[in-house]
Amino acid sequence: MHHLILRPCLLFLLVFCSCPLLWGDAPVQRPNIILVMADDLGWSDIGCYGGEIETPHIDSLSRDGMRFTQFYNNAICGPTRASLLTGLYCQQTGHRGDRWNEPKNFDVCMTFGEILQQAGYRTMMVGKWQGRDSALDRGFDRFYGPMCQAKISYYHEVDQNPFFLDRQRIELPEDFYLTDAFNEHAVQFLKEGLTSQQPFLLYVAHIAPHWPLHAREQEIARYRKQYLEQGWDQIRAERFRNQRQTGLIPEEWQLAPRAASIHNWKQEQHQRWQAERMAVYAAQVKSIDQGLGQLLQTLKAADADDNTLVIFLSDNGAAPDGGLSPSKSGFGFSEKTPNRNWRRDGVMIKPGSGPDHLPGPPDTFAAYGLAWATISNTPFRGTKLEGYEGGIRTPLVVRWPAVIQQGGVITRQPGHVIDFMPTFLEIAQADYPREFKGRHPLPVEGKSLLPVFQGKLRSPNAELCWNLPRHQVILSGHWKAIRPRKKPTVWQLYNLDIDGTETTDVADQHPEQVKKLAQRFDAWAKRVNAK
Predict the structure, then answer these.
(1) Which residues contact 188 (CB under 8 A, 6 or more apart)?
(2) Is 24 exposed, middle or buried (0-12, 13-18, 19+ CB in 10 A)?
(3) 464-467 and 66-72 as β-strands: parallel, antiparallel, unpaired?
(4) Once rounded to an integer, what is the mean pLDDT over residues 110-126?
(5) CA distance 97 to 385
(6) How high is the pLDDT of residue 68?
(7) Host H or E run for residue 34
(8) CA 240, 56, 292, 364 torsion-angle sign
(9) Can you tell me the distance from the alpha carbon of 112 to that of 85, in angstroms, rounded to the nearest whole number?
(10) Which of 236, 315, 417, 438 is most solvent-facing, going by the fewest CB within 10 Å?
């Protein structure tokens, strides 16, 4: 009969996990959490943010939940992940923010995986993990994915990116496609979580639609004609019109001017190649949406969607990599250096990309370039690595029927990825420790998003700051000051309430405001050790 006796700690855990939370008069169980993040996805690439790419499952989160119009990341993948996981500015974790280095100050931070694991959650992760240690060492019970840096293929394993299931290195099957594999393991982990006696966290960190442009032909074909016939001018105009009509952006905002190097679509000499680049990118976005659909269907089948918080966002703005011309799209692959050791199966990457070598198949390596990245970030100025809104503003869609009871809500309250840690702390009734396994974590910098989910106004951070490869930035209220690294003595100033696309620099009109923000930025940089 000893197998019928519960140990006291296990009994406490089961009772604690089933206890309702009391927010106002409504009892709510501690929620399950599913966090899905895309890589290099632009603000307007999904349907509910004005885009033409078919994303019905992401859009369903918007229809049944809430969209944020002013939510921020750190403009680069690694720094965003450092802040998202810890609730700290990336510089506090030892991540410079303006370079690609890995975080080093592990003794001053914790991940939300560690926090929720200690609070009785089952924690699972699939996808891009950019740490020197395993995700299992940082609070996750399950992990599937590569130890991923810049060496990527959607079809084949490369020597620099071994794949792991938990701690075991695994070989990839012949029919492997990266996003499909992430989707399949996310569903597997979700089913495990649904059958456990614990609430769960599932963190899915996609690599798509980050280059290289790799997608299956049947998925590319559905978009090829559309981009060839419409081109980037018409696509951008239609996205901007959709955003205005649906209330995502105010009528008075203007479409940010595009870079001088981007010519009119009618003048493009290689339209077929350019359209193919965007068609492959769209197919990569579509594969993310299909995976989310599988997760939502699994939740529904288990009757678990009511009290599961589902979050979707991107790690930075769209990336301008790949150049505007065929001669600048090869990422260093050339006739002389075809990189014979890129793939473990020994197949060489064909040099470059262009009209006679279209992207998509396994032996290609290309990105879609500045013109399409500008479309992806409609209506904003700037791209990945930059401090303009196109670099740091992310779509954020949230569904949680038990709390967000009115669907289709648009909130203009600002937020940042540092807010996820305090949000998860609050909804999981978890304590943030002063000491953990010999570490002394810094206090979190973000603020809980729960009041926003509940339809209330919250007090935002007095300021948000960024130290990026191309800019230094401070945002306070509706004022945003930005300093280009190439002109370190010159601050620009924008009023985001009336000019969210940053078309008019008003620094000359408000010199005292610029001075005050510059001083506050310097104080922040000193506090967080921003180099």
Answers:
(1) none
(2) exposed
(3) unpaired
(4) 97
(5) 10
(6) 98
(7) strand 32-38
(8) negative
(9) 6
(10) 438
Structure tokens at 128: 């891009």
Where does residue 362 rank: exposed (0-12), middle (13-18), buried (19+ CB within 10 A)? middle
Q: Residue 102 phi/psi, 5° resolution?
A: -85, 155
Q: Which two tokens stand for residue 526?
A: 């000193």
* Residue 325: pLDDT over 60: yes
DSSP 319: P
Helices 369-376 and 217-245 cross at an angle (nearest 10°) of 50
Report the length, in residues, of the chain: 531
pLDDT of amino acid 340:
55
Q: What is the pLDDT of residue 4?
A: 33
Residue 143's pLDDT band (cuts 50, 70, 90): very high
DSSP secondary structure of 54-97: --HHHHHHHHHSEEEEEEE--SSHHHHHHHHHHSS-GGGGT--S
Cβ atoms of residues 244 and 296 within 8 Å: no
Burial code (b: 16+ CB inside 10 Å, e: under 16) for 61-93 equals: bbebbbbbbbbbbbbbbbbbbbbbbbbbbbbbb
pLDDT-based confidence at 17, cuts 50/70/90? very low
Q: Tell me the domains of the chain and their CATH numbers.
A: 2-461 (3.40.720.10), 462-531 (3.30.1120.10)
Between helices 56-64 and 271-301, what is the axis angle to 10°? 50
C-beta separation of 329 from 354 below 8 A = yes
- The amino acid at 85: L
